[in-house]
Design brief:
The protein is of the alpha/beta class. The protein has three domains: 123 residues, Gyrase A, domain 2 (2-Layer Sandwich), CATH 3.30.1360; 117 residues, tRNA modification GTPase MnmE domain 2 (Four Helix Bundle (Hemerythrin (Met), subunit A)), CATH 1.20.120.430; 176 residues, P-loop containing nucleotide triphosphate hydrolases (Rossmann fold), CATH 3.40.50.300. Helices cover 43% and strands 15% of the residues. The chain is built from 15 helices and 13 strands. It has a seven-stranded mixed β-sheet, sandwiched between helices. Strands 3-4-5-2-1-6 form a six-stranded mixed β-sheet. The two termini are 16 Å apart. Its cofactor is K(+). Keywords: Cytoplasm, GTP-binding, Hydrolase, Magnesium, Metal-binding, Nucleotide-binding, Potassium, tRNA processing. GO terms for molecular function: GTP binding; GTPase activity; metal ion binding.
Length: 474
């Protein structure tokens, strides 16, 4: 794949279909000469520019009925995305015209992801950043876009490169000590060596935790409605969806199914879950399907009690897997006796929602917590405030646990585990005061595994697997 990384390639960089502009991208040493085959020569500088330039020009070739306006963007070698000379032609959006331009350039058509591959091979990006480009392209919502942009800015590659640099220094010190072994002069004390390896191990565990936050999963965050019966949860569920149980799918496995649907607000998508009402809801205790059933009830097959237990267990299970719980309470039934509930809503995973605000007598005093959100699903009151609060909580939780692009997480999980195992092996060797040769070998193994992630160590198979996922033109 990379054996051809020094020729000149071209591709349409924008999707086909309706749009304002079409972009044709060229990269390689012949980029400037090639663009003169399709652009009116007199509108371009006679010599290849030494600095990035933008030129207003016209498409022109024999047989083209009219001059078509275009903008030509040029970046010299070392100043572009790929690290090579790059030209982009921006013109009117027309699929046949774009295909004709690429054909008349007489260059090799770019393979999927080849522009980003060249950026990696020329040191403009590491592998985690290259995968972040794909993450930006494939992002379906704001949360995924933020993760990809953070990774593109070096959010994952930076710490890994710093760790690799520390391990390189450590290996150098260990191997330097081998040169003085016959003179019985310790170059690095066992205590210092053990401390540095342990510190590297902790740093690697922190990085692994970041990867596991994403875990390669495409699951949306879960927002679960919980609370006592008749608290208005189902009405609120429909109101948040702006439909009567629209795009709702039952989840099997319980006697009384709960309902799920995807809700999107301000570019943030989440899974909304409506659960069965549970008496004396507190959100603090786990329940099994058979809890609170007496032996007599079980033996006589009391169906109502059994169903109630199953409903309670299903609700508790949904609540425990929630990224955010909406604890719903009928505002007309809210009283100081609910103080236990109040205590359970003062954390980042819960929001207290007081429903049926349209039934609240005007003379009733406001005795509920300041953080509570009053809504009336029937009158469409407070719903925007509630949606805003949901999105703010989800985004806040995401920002405090920075993740990685899913494709990076899937590729790197094994390499991170191997690096951790190698550092653990090195630590055990140091603890047993084994040969420094063995310690250096274990450290080099950790270095190799980390290098696979950032791209210092790679093979054609790895690159083909990564860049084949890209579309042409990226």
């Amino acid at each position: 794949m990379w054996q051809q990384a020094h020729d000149t390639i071209a591709a349409v960089a924008t999707a086909f279909g309706r749009g304002a502009r079409q972009i044709i991208r060229i990269s390689g040493p012949e980029a400037w000469q090639a663009v003169r085959r399709v652009v009116f020569p007199e509108s371009l500088p006679s010599e290849e520019p030494l600095q990035p330039v933008v030129v207003a020009a016209y498409l022109a070739w024999e047989g083209l009925p009219a001059q078509v306006p275009c903008d030509v963007f040029y970046w010299p070698s070392g100043r572009s995305y790929t690290g090579q000379a790059v030209v982009e032609i921006h013109t009117v959006c027309c699929g046949p015209l774009a295909q004709e331009i690429v054909a008349r350039l007489k260059l090799r058509p770019a393979r999927p992801g080849e522009f980003t591959l060249r950026a990696f091979l020329n040191g403009r990006l590491d592998l985690t950043q290259a995968e972040a480009v794909l993450g930006v392209v494939e992002a379906r919502e704001v949360r995924e876009l933020q993760i990809a942009l953070q990774q593109l800015a070096g959010g994952i590659g930076g710490p890994l490169r710093a760790l690799r640099e520390e391990l390189l220094n450590l290996v150098a010190d260990v191997e330097a000590g081998l040169d003085f072994a016959e003179e019985d002069l310790p170059f690095l004390s066992w205590e210092e060596l053990e401390t540095r390896v342990a510190t590297a191990g902790r740093t690697l565990e922190e990085i692994r935790h970041q990867f596991e936050q994403r875990g390669g999963s495409t699951e949306l965050p879960r927002v679960v409605l919980v609370g006592p019966p008749n608290a208005g949860k189902s009405t609120l569920f429909n109101a948040l969806l702006s439909a009567e149980r629209a795009i709702v799918s039952p989840v099997p496995g319980t006697t009384r199914d709960y309902l799920t649907a995807v809700c999107t607000y301000r570019g943030v998508s989440f899974e909304l879950v409506d659960t069965a009402g549970v008496e004396s809801w507190s959100g603090t205790k786990s329940f099994s399907a058979s809890e609170n059933m007496t032996e007599a009830e079980t033996s006589t097959g009391d169906a109502d009690s059994f169903i109630a237990g199953k409903m309670r267990a299903a609700t508790q299970q949904a609540a425990e897997t929630a990224d955010l719980q909406l604890v719903c309470w009928d505002v007309t039934q809210y009283s100081p006796q609910a103080v236990r509930l109040n205590r359970n809503t003062h954390n980042s995973r819960t929001l207290l929602v007081l429903t049926k605000a349209d039934l609240l007598p005007t003379e009733k005093s406001c005795s509920w917590p300041e953080s509570a959100i009053l809504v009336s699903a029937r009158r469409n009151r407070g719903l925007e405030t509630l949606k805003e609060a949901i999105v703010n909580r989800l985004v806040s939780r995401q920002e405090t646990s920075a993740g990685v692009v899913a494709v990076t997480a899937m590729r790197c999980r094994d390499a991170l585990q191997r690096a951790a195992d190698s550092l653990q092996q090195a630590h055990e060797l140091i603890r047993r005061r084994e040969s420094e040769d063995f310690i250096a070998t274990a450290l080099r193994s950790a270095l190799s595994s980390i290098g696979e992630i950032t791209g210092e160590v790679y093979s054609e198979e790895i690159l083909a697997r990564i860049f084949s996922r890209f579309c042409i033109g990226k």
